[in-house]
Amino acid sequence: MNDENRKMIFVLIAVVAIIVGGYATLISYTGMGTPFSVVMSQSMQHDPDRSEIGCIDTGDVVVVKNKNSATIESYVVATNTGYSTFGDYGSVIIYERDSSSNPVIHRAIVWLDWNPTTETWSSKELVDYKGEWYCNVNGSHENNTNNLRGTLTFENLTQSGKTVKINLSTLERQSGYLTLGDNPKTNLSFDQASGIISHPIGNDDIRSVPFFEIPWLGTIKLLINGNNANLSYVPNSLPSLAMVIVTIIGAILLIDVATVWKNINGWSFRKKEDP
C-alpha cells in the first residue's frame, strides 16, 4: 500500500470517528436515543408564509433534550424571568397524544393545578403574572388564582398579541400546561380548546424539549415523503437550503484551489532558489 492510500484511509477513519463520536456525545448530552425531530406542520411559525431563522418552521430540524434534564418554564413564568426559546418567552415542548396521532410541538403557556378535594382549578404561576388575564364568570371578571372558574381568558398573549380563552369546565381534570402554537393565523386557541387534546399537558405527557433549531434541513424528508403541500408554508426553505449547500461546496472548492495554488507557488519558489 502506497503513502497516498494510507493517507486516504487515515482521513476516512478520522472523519468517521468524528461523526460517530459527535453523535454519541449528542446522545449522551440530550439523553435521547434519537435527538433530532423534523417539524411537519406550520403551527409554530411566526410568519405563516415563510421560514425564519430562530423560529420553528415547517421543514426545520429541532434538536431535542430529555424532559428530565431540560429546563421547562411556561410563558407566564418566563415573562418575569426573561427566559425565552425560539423567538418568545417560555419553553417549547413536544407532547404525546394517543398512539394513532403524531406528537405535537407547541409552547407551554401556563401550568394549571387541579385540586380534587375542592374540585377547583388554581395556578400559582398567575400570581405574579403582569399580563392581562381574567376568568369570565357570568359576565364578571375574576382574578382569583386559587379558584379559577368560568372562561379563562388571556389578552395580548405571546409575540403576536393573541386573545386566547378556554372554558375550564370542558377540561379533563388533570394538572398540567395549557399549550398553544405560535402561528398568529392558524393557532388562535389553546390546544385544549381546539380539539387537539382534551386535558392539560402533565409531565408524563411530555416526550422531549427542543432546544436548538437547524433551519431548512428537514425539507429533504418532506420531499422524500411526498409532503410537498407542507412546503407551501415555507416557499423560501428549499432555495435557502440549496444556497447553503452551494456555499459549503464552493468553500470546499476554494480551499482546495488555494491549497493547490500554494503548493505550486511554493514549488516554483524553491526551484528558483536551487543552485
Overview of this protein structure:
It is a single chain. It contains five helices and 13 strands. The protein has helices at 3-30, 75-81, 219-224, 228-231, 237-273, and strands spanning 36-38, 61-65, 84-85, 88-89, 92-95, 104-115, 120-122, 132-137, 140-142, 151-157, 162-167, 176-180, 206-214. Strands 1, 2, 5, 6, 7, 12 and 13 form a seven-stranded antiparallel sheet that branches. The chain has a four-stranded antiparallel sheet with strand order 9-8-10-11, with no helix packed on it. β8 (132-137) and β9 form a beta hairpin. The chain is elongated and about 85 Å long. Mean pLDDT is 90; it is low at 268-275.
Highlighted features:
single chain; 275 residues; alpha+beta; 30% helix; disordered C terminus
Please sum up the structure shown.
The chain has helices spanning about 5-30, 75-80, 220-225, 230, 235-275, and strands at about 35-40, 60-65, 85, 90, 90-95, 105-115, 120, 130-135, 140, 150-155, 160-165, 175-180, 205-215. The protein is α+β, with helices and mostly antiparallel strands and about 280 residues long.
